[in-house]
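Sequence in, structure out. Go.
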Amino acid sequence: MTTEEVIGAGAAILTTSSFLPQAIKVVRTRDTEAISLTMYVLFTAGITLWGIYGVMTWQWSIIIANGVTVVLAATILTMKVLAVLAAGRKPGAPSPN
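Output:
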């Protein structure tokens, strides 16, 4: 394994694992109120593109890290969209009292 591959793998492990606590918290509590729908749409799209880039360039650290992260981000995004739809309000609107 080259130095570049070790650095890439380390970066992939750190960034993906840093996202895990947020995903676990959202799945456990089902609380997405403080999460920005726009941010998660953009983030999930960006992670998906990084994954595609990894596949196109055959960079396994990028493929694996973004594959795991896109599953976690898509889970949170789905929960956020469902919460917004269930509340019958537009994204970003204040929650009803």
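Check: The chain has a mean pLDDT of 88. The radius of gyration is 16 Å.
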